[in-house]
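Lest this sound abstract, we think one record worth quoting, the chain in one-letter code, the fold tokenised, each line plainly labelled:

>
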Amino acid sequence: MTAVERVLGIGGYFLRARDPAALQAWYRDLLGVADDTERPWQQEAGPTVFAAFDHDTEYFGSARQATMLNFRVRDLDAMLAQLRAGGADVAPETEDEPGVGRFGWVTDPEGNRVELWQPA
């Protein structure tokens, strides 16, 4: 049987923005995502979920948002506090899913809902 070629991981995530420099600075300053294309952000090893949702899901926030970025975090409460202190639009609720972890959400300056996940 012939081996099936597979992707190795996510190599980039690209967003349209009215103000790309400001959006890039927001992700860098509030979430720590490096924006140097010469030395790209090196994420820590860990699980990545790839899942399709029903076309009319409300989970992403706006119906105009076709995808949602999910970042793994070490300490959800600390990250949410950091985002609030930075003036970010943080959802008031969090969600605990036994065996999976805790979730919280923030909306970036361009209106994209971003999920934060503290794995169990």
The first strand starts at residue 69 and ends at 72. The chain has one domain: 20-119.
